[in-house]
Amino acid sequence: MAIEQAPTPEGKQSSKNLHEAAAGEERKVEAEKGSDLKKGADRVEERSRSSDGKGPGEKQS
Fold it and tell me: What is the DSSP code (8-state) at residue 40?
């Protein structure tokens, strides 16, 4: 949920904290990896292949 769409002030703060934590974790992983994480469809492909060596299209067949 987007920060602006949260119905209560507590929800807005919780959403903000979640976004900040996720961004911090991403920076940490990128620093350990030594390169940026892939985004969007490239990330889906990368994550899928890392789990079992098959791409998403191969799993559908």
Answer: H
CA–CA separation, 12 vs 46, rounded Å?
Answer: 32
Backbone φ and ψ for 7, nearest 5 degrees, come out as: -75, -20
d(CA 9, CA 29): 30
Helix, strand, coil content of the chain in percent (nearest 5)? 75, 0, 25
Supply the pTM of this predicted model: 0.54
pLDDT in tens, the chain (61 residues): 466 787 888 988 888 999 899 889 988 888 888 888 778 777 777 777 766 767 666 766 6
